[in-house]
From TrEMBL:
Keywords: DNA-binding, Nucleus, Transcription, Transcription regulation. It is found in: Nucleus. The keyword Glycosyltransferase does not apply. The keyword DNA-binding applies. GO terms for cellular component: nucleus. This is BHLH domain-containing protein. GO terms for molecular function: DNA binding; DNA-binding transcription factor activity; protein dimerization activity. Pfam families: HLH. PROSITE patterns: BHLH. Residues 74-123 form the BHLH domain. PANTHER family: OS09G0463900 PROTEIN, TRANSCRIPTION FACTOR BHLH30. Its main location: nucleus.
Amino acid sequence: MAAYYYKSNSSSSGYGYFSSLDPFSRSLEGFNGVLQDGSMVSQALVLDNEKGELVKAPATRVGKKGMSEAKALAALKSHSEAERRRRERINAHLASLRGLVPCTEKMDKATLLAEVINQVKELKKNALEASKGLLIPMDDDEVKVETYDNGSGDETLSFKAFICCDYRPDLLSDIRQAVDSLQLKMVDAEISTLGAG
């Protein structure tokens, strides 16, 4: 079969040779084909060798379907790329978790996650037990003074003072000035910090 294309240059009414073959087709100015369902369908006349006459070839869509196939291919490629990046992120996070877990053996993802969950539960339990053992004063600038027997048997009077306050740059020098103003001799000093201060 040989293919021949026919372009109608008929009157402004828009009907030409194709309208005699297909009553539903229209030839629009500058447009070769038929509009069906909002997409362009190109039409061709093919010479039938057996009959020796021109017949319409099967219509081929050029419009929406061709464009939608390209869009579908691009969307599939984009989705595949996004999925690959997502898997890479998950595997990077799993590698970080493997570094945090004390086990040295290679383990699958489910075992790794179970081990991490157990470790977090253990850390929470340890933190709760540690916080129960600490007596953290809640009042600002808490001071407690009590008498202290050093066991020497002499007439000296000793005091033990506890001070709890927020840290500030001149704290130690202020405490030293307060003790000196009382004309007391400092025998021993212990300093400890709680929290991030």
